[in-house]
Amino acid sequence: MGICYAGRYEISGYGYNATTQVYTLKSGIASSASAANGARPVQPGDLKLQDLNEDGVIDNKDMTDLGNAPAKFYGGFNQTFRYKNWDMSLMFNSLSEIKCIMLTN
Known about the structure:
two-stranded antiparallel sheet
């Protein structure tokens, strides 16, 4: 069980008060602050979660079966280059067709 990812909060979903320099989430956009940010209010660029039951609050009632967590394909490779008194190492990792990401504290 988990909460579905819905992208990131965009600047267009906020009103900005220039005197207080505070972004305020526009009405009608569910806040994922309690589920993803702890006590901190959401800001542009923060993780946005889906409000599946459409009550305007993202909480445990929005959890759904996410299926299998392991990716269908995962892999990687590394390469080391050496020349005289110089060396460089590169490492690449990849995942494919992953359905959920486990977020833990």
